[in-house]
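Entry:
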Amino acid sequence: MAERRMFSKVIIDSDAFLDMPLSTQALYFHLSMRADDDGFLNNARKIQRLVGASDDDLRLLLMKRFVIGFEGGILVIKHWRMNNYLRKDRYTPTVYQDEYAMLGVKKNGSYTLEKTDGIQAGIPDGSQCVTQVSIGKDSIDKKRIEKTVCPEPETAPDRKKAISLILNDKTEYWIFEDQIAEWKELFPAVDVMQELRKMRSWLDSNTSRRKTKRGILRFVNGWLSKEQDKGWSRQGGGSTYDTGREARGDRTAEKGYIQQLIEAGYDPEDTTGF
């Protein structure tokens, strides 16, 4: 396995990367340095503890798709092939061939998750589904897997509704108080309820960019992540990119917040741009 790693400035100079906290950026560099020749590693938690990063740093990398997660704690660096070029005589294929087979490669060289075959993407958090049926050659088994991998989550009878977001089919998607409580812990610099109201206004105004039922929570998490980064910057931990914007005297905050987003064509789902 090669001992040297490279990083593309297209990735590390992007707004999406520089807007992350320095601790998250550092974790990305350390994960990349220790990945195998295909960008895979199985000890992200160990590296996280080694460099003093938090669980939020790892979650943010997963949320912004700088890394892709698989069952069992295996991760792959999404933009590995954009960062690294290895000679064939120094290349050692990854031992995680099952996970590797689930990936496709875009024209720009970045990985994309094309199929799951019963292996869940991301670190299990209680809201994701885990198949209980092993893959077999029988077509009946395959049908059972398809039904088991992504079941509809059941709503607990005692959950209290807090606010609804309109979907692309004009139905209302309810956000519950327990979800808001969890987001408050994950995004301590954000007024979660106020941001949900802004999301509702944004979705009301942007009818062509409303989300599906499967995509709405990704939209919410992307929005809150961006707001967390802004809050972190205001507390003195901003990146040089943030400081540069202030030095230039940008005054977009004087406009109404929602109108800003609409004019800029803002979409929280578009996290890295790659």
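Residues 103 and 113 are 5 Å apart (CA to CA).
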